Amino acid sequence: MARENINHNNPLNAPGYLAWHVTQKGEKSFWNKVGAAWKHKDGRGYTLQLETCPINGRIVLRLPLEDAPETANDAGRS
């Protein structure tokens, strides 16, 4: 099966999920956006594109918030 190259920078091809690196410090969680995921055309998987690769914490995929401004650090998210 041939694979197609898809340009993920096209604004019409918005990601299905945003990837967040989450670290815990005491009772507080810190969320930093590290990438995004796009659904495959056949619906059987996702392509995950990371801008950075964290070495600790966890990566969480969340649906994008449609009305929220994009920020580098969403410390209030939990």
TrEMBL record:
<protein>
    <submittedName>
        <fullName>Uncharacterized protein</fullName>
    </submittedName>
</protein>
